[in-house]
Amino acid sequence: MSTRLEQALGHAFSDSSLLLMALTHRSHSSPHNERLEFLGDAILSGVIARQLFDRFPDVPEGDLSRLRANLVRQDSLHQLALSLSLGECLRLGEGELKSGGVQRPSILADALEALFGAIWLDAGFDIASAVIVRLYGDMLAAIVPGQPIKDAKTRLQEYLQGRRLPLPKYSLAGTAGEAHAQQFKMSCAIESLLVNTEGSGASRRAAEQMAAERALERLQQQ
Predict the structure, then answer these.
(1) Average of pLDDT values for 155-180?
(2) Which fold has domain 2-148?
(3) For FRET with 99, which of 28, 46, 187, 203 sits at 20 to 30 Å CA-CA?
(4) Would you state the pLDDT for residue 142?
(5) Considering the entire predicted model, what is its pTM?
(6) Whether the Cβ atoms of residue 52 and residue 139 lie closer than 8 Å to each other
(7) 171 bridge partner residues
(8) pLDDT for 2 beyond 60
(9) Is residue 199 within 8 Å of 213, Cβ to Cβ?
(10) Which helix (H) or strand (E) holds 61?
(11) Per-residue model confidence as pLDDT tens digits over 131-140
């Protein structure tokens, strides 16, 4: 499982204990990932700031700060974590597992920041920066100063509209878990391109976003 995650991140850890720590929630055991999260938050903010500074030379400081805040907020990190299927790799205590912690936005966002910190310690700033820039590539490319960053469903819709293709159809593919921690599986079908992907999440919206992100990845590979 960790090998799959390393492939998705584009980084193979030399020190596997750092990866293990990054994936360990405080409810599971110690050492856990909170200190790595602190480090990851710092490098994420710096890397995104530099990307925005370089990409938008005419945008004033206040607007750059708002763009950065949007990119590093919990919702953006959560969407990236879902695209990596990060929840499947987390080490959570029994209580968190029963309450659906593997899909909780705050836990996933914190774990992704911890991974950024772990990569920094494992391989240095440049490698960690490269991982962040690659993961944030689509979000950065979608930025239009003065407009909100577009989510995966919006980007997929615009991709298809730009090619005069029918819009995707989202449908419920299944549910699992107890009512208080239900997991939804949604499919995203683009019949004209023979693309059908699935995503899962604690809400239909989150599952649709994951399915749309995977559809975009599939289309970019064609």
Answers:
(1) 88
(2) Ribonuclease iii, N-terminal Endonuclease Domain; Chain A (1.10.1520)
(3) 187
(4) 82
(5) 0.73
(6) no
(7) 187
(8) yes
(9) yes
(10) helix 61-72
(11) 999 999 988 9
For residue 122, give the nearest of 13, 11, 8 by alpha carbon: 13
24 touches 91 (CB < 8 A): yes
The catalytic residues are 41, 113
d(CA 157, CA 172): 19
CA distance 197 to 93: 31
Phi/psi for 68 (5° steps) reads -60, -45
For residue 51, give the nearest of 129, 108, 110 by alpha carbon: 129
Kind and range of the H or E element at 172?
Answer: strand 169-176
* Pair 198, 185: CB distance under 8 Å: yes
Instruction: Check: CB of residue 40 under 8 Å from CB of residue 116.
Output: yes
Q: How far is CA 29 from CA 105, 111, 180, in A?
A: 20, 14, 24
> Average pLDDT for residues 6-25, to the nearest whole number?
96
Q: What is the pLDDT of residues 42-58, one digit of tens each?
A: 999 999 999 999 999 99
Tens of pLDDT, residue by residue over 69-85, are 989 998 889 889 988 88
Among residues 194, 1, 16, 216, which one has the least CA distance to residue 119?
16
Q: Which fold has domain 153-221?
A: Double Stranded RNA Binding Domain (3.30.160)
